[in-house]
Amino acid sequence: MYCPFCRNPDSRVVDSRLSDDGSSIRRRRQCTECGRRFSTMETASLSVTKRSGVAEPFSRSKIISGVRKACQGRPVTDDDLAKLAQEVEESIRASGAAEIDANDVGLAILAPLQRLDLVAYLRFASVYQAFESLEDFESAIATLRCESKAGAQGSGPLAQTSSTTTLNN
Ligand SMILES: [Zn+2]
User: Fold this and answer.
1) Where are the unnamed-classified zinc fingers (predicted)?
2) What backbone torsions phi and psi does residue 59 show, to the nearest 5 degrees?
3) Cα 160 to Cα 152: distance, rounded to the nearest angstrom
């Protein structure tokens, strides 16, 4: 890329640093012409196509601001939201797609939000899945009740006993 100061097309990398989550690399560059330094960020490209057909770069902060509204008054911290956004990004990147539908981003939010806070999940799902009636809420809650029963069985005393046995063997 061009030097932002003198537009010389050549620069050399003087330092490369991986971000904490490993999703981007920051490079410090020095212009071979004017000698001034600038930074570039390198990330695997991931764009989100909105309903209008417009594509924009995937952004964790948009995920966070979208979910934050649903979390108002809930015991959810900024740290929880940051982790959720990271989880969403990782699950989308794991799919290997360079472009994703805004709708699928919403889908990718539902599972981690459900684990984080059920009330926030229901609020988010009601907007995202356009709940129209009490019945929509009732069936979503019924599904959650079913899942939490199944989850309780999985981590119940029986499961613990069997995993202990495995460890002892
Ligand atoms: Zn320069």
Assistant:
1) 3-34
2) -140, 125
3) 12
Q: Are residues 124 and 99 in the same domain?
A: yes
| Nearest Cα to Cα of residue 93 among 102, 80, 105, 81 | 105
pLDDT tens digit string along 34-85?
999 999 988 878 899 988 999 988 989 999 999 999 999 999 999 999 999 9
The mean pLDDT of the chain is 85
DSSP-derived 3-state class of residue 74: coil
Number of structural domains in the chain? 2
Pairing of strands 11-18, 55-57: unpaired
Shared domain check, 106 and 31? no
Give the range of the structural domain holding residue 121, as residue numbers without chain letter: 47-132
Q: pLDDT by residue (tens digit) across 111-165?
A: 999 999 999 999 999 988 888 888 988 889 998 888 877 765 544 444 333 333 3
Question: How far, in Å, from the CA of 14 to the mean position of ligand 1?
Answer: 14
